[in-house]
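Reviewer 2 asked us to include a model.

Predict the structure of this chain.
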Amino acid sequence: MAHSHHHHHHHQKLSGKKLLISILLNIVITLAQVIGGIISGSLALLSDALHNFSDVLSLIISYLANRFTSKQASTTKTFGYKRAEIMAAFVNSATLIVIAVVLIKEAVERFLQPEPIAPALVIWLSALGILVNGFSVLLLKKDAGQNMNMKSAYLHLLTDMMASVAVLIGGLLMYFYQLYWVDPLLTILIGLYLIYMGYDLLKSSSKVLMLFTPDQIKVDEIVKIVGDHPAIKNVHHVHIWQLNEREIHLEAHIDFYENINLNAFDDILKGIEEKVYHDFGITHLSIQPEFGKCHSNEVIVQD
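Predicted model (structure tokens):
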């Protein structure tokens, strides 16, 4: 277990360094696109710069969450900062959707009233955006599968790279064919994709923050497995929640047929712990043993 704990912290430090590199790169490309957008008069570049700036903010949130997660628990923070990454994923996915709506709104207005711009600078700076964001995407790709926080940062960078591709295509079509309506059309399509990707992550992180039972866990199956023990009369007051992506907690009251001693209870508890961990991945178990109590035996009770 100590080795696993050390490996997790090593992975966090490595992810943190990658996020820091991505933050610095995105600050550079944001400044370049703002200056280029003002000089060229390109709303597309300024829009992409806004998207990049949102990426900088989201990456900073992800970086801070990554750092906070490694902090030790204390008497005032008994869980430590284990939910920092989930909160970062929630904020980032929510901002992803908001930005997408803003981009679509601007794109519709620009589609109705296209404006001629100087496309050469748009082409060069969008190409730079593709290179910078593409490098950041490759940098975080491996870590994206580790947790929601890194996935949200990865999605921000991936969608920003796609936005830069759209701006580049729009710049080329404007340069060669003066087709100014292509840029807002591509922006609308990218905005819809942003909403699609962001919603899935927002939904997942919301479930964790709301203490919903993880999708893969069926409460009735756990109650049956635990209740099948011959010494157990019933299982009630069950609560199952996810602290973060690595820890699932189970809390329940167990009513026994007989007034058993602590040694017997410990043996039964050990068997339950092994079973629920093996079958459902539950890592933390809090069981309240009871005998002869008069109260509700409802499995799910609203406190």
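The helical segments are 2-40, 43-69, 84-112, 119-141, 148-177, 182-209, 219-227, 262-280. Confidence is low (pLDDT under 50) at residues 1-8. We have added this to the supplementary material.
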